[in-house]
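Regression test attached.
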Amino acid sequence: MPEIRNFTLNFGPAHPAAHGVLRLVLEMDGEVIVRADPHIGLLHRGTEKLAETKPYNQSIGYMDRLDYVSMMCNEHGYVLAIEKLLGITPPERALYIRTLFDEITRILNHLLWIGMHALDIGAMSMFIYAFREREDLMDAYEAVSGTRMHASYYRPGGVYRDLPDAMPQYEASRFCSESEAKRLNENRQGSLLDFLEDFTQRFPSYLAEYENLLTDNRIWKQRLVNIGIVSPERALQLGLTGPMLRGSGIAWDIRKKQAYAVYDQVEFDIPIGTNGDSYDRYLVRMEEMFQSNRIIKQCIAWLRKNPGPVIADDKIAPPKRVAMKQDMEALIHHFKLMTEGYCLPVGEAYAAVEHPKGEFGCYILSDGANKPYRLKIRAPGFTHLAAMDEMARGHMLADVVTIIGTQDIVFGEIDR
Amino acid sequence: MTEKLAQIHAYLQTQLSEQLSAIKYEFNELTLELPVAHWLAVAEFLRQDERLACHQIIDLCGVDYLTFGDAEWDVTTASRRGFSRAVQSTEADALFEFAQPTSSATLSYPRYAVVVHVLSVQHNFRLRLRTWAENNDLPLIPSLVPIWNAANWFEREAFDLFGILFTGHPDLRRILTDYGFVGHPFRKDFPLIGQVEMFYDPELKRVAYKPVSIEARVLVPRVIR
């Protein structure tokens, strides 16, 4: 009788369904997973150590590159920790802008997730639809910050600048005809808020389209229902947060429970799952997009009515150009801020935000210098991927792809 | 202090007064400091006690206190060619030297700490725990994996980046650095530029390592004001 042994399969690090650079060593018994051992760190850049050698404001750009599909939420966690240590509160308008862009980011992230998740499972068209909508939101990013992805828009004390009054327009060129440009510019005639309002009116119908394609789709359900079940007790024990925790039926959302920005002043609901499987997490995220759309509408309405400053005047934001030309103090302040930065008081603080993927937090330990003594980034994906072994055990090889998709893995934040 | 945190503060003081060395309240957060001997007992208590129910570990990280409070602005020598603060050079007419990190042997205080953030989903509050490893050359701290399973990867990370050894950890391997990496990169005496660089060796026809050839630069010095 021949000896039957488990064999080891190497999944990644350059597998299209590995969502980046995941090397997964799978011990297989036939087609069943006995043990999954994720090898991470292929994208490790030492963000935390780099941040220890730079003044606080210079690290904001690094935060964008952590979870590179939900850029502004990462910045939010970082600036919140700094603001906590400095003891400053941004102006209310800045808080509304942050809430607005956090929710835009959540939709951006979930759209990418649904596109990739469906693509991995074999539904090609979802990917195309999701990227069509992402384009509009990235234009909103570009309008406020000048870049489509790595915005560096949030600053300690507020946001970099106020929302623009005009949207950039398409121009006719060899690649874009006159009539095409005109069509594309139709909803760009007003301000950024007009553009976003137009989006929020269209978006629910898009969501309905996605639901039509997927929710009752037989293949989609066969691939997702009862795959990667996590019980509520295990979800807590494994440190799952965000939609992963809510999918298991635990009503925990930092936006509701430990509200930051202006989440205590906007209305929205928290969807939770019942079975804790991949299908429930899919439903939770779809509903979250709908709720984000609701929050964006409320923020737009408030922002239209309430003009005001968007950054606190607390000597940590650079002075206005005009002031620098006329006032010696302002010039000195600008020079010191750009060459040396500002010092935080001695102490430590942890600030967390409800990132699209879960709890994103920054722990800053300061010894009173102009750079953090230790910056620890708590990335949600890190613990989610650690749960991979338990979630994949006993499933088939093809289900690993579903589980990676349902965990919404992005390596920028896991490897840091 | 919010009412809830004040209640927890008082409760912890009555229940854990023997185990804790300090309870700090700063920036609306509670920090428990404790000797490493009580690490597991306190963690177990926080998780099991019904009034606390800290079921979730949010974060665990290592901290290296080697250069805590050192500023780089105390310049001792300026060069003949003027004052530049960017390059750390070993040559004779070096611009100036930044304070070199002291070795851990002469350190009079514990060097490595582990900081844990826990969350009680049931009662909606957070706590921070901190303990210091007693031995600076062989930092040993008991593993929290049996109490909170999610500590597994966090402890692997702290081991990888700081060299803190977690006794009782089921699978203490490196996690973020490369296979075969030498050293613990987040220690304060590990240079930012690293120690080795990779290159393609045409004779060996493979990738090989050599000592780094770039200069360490400090663009903005640390100042404490």
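Expected vs. actual: identical. The first helix of chain A runs from residue 47 to 52.
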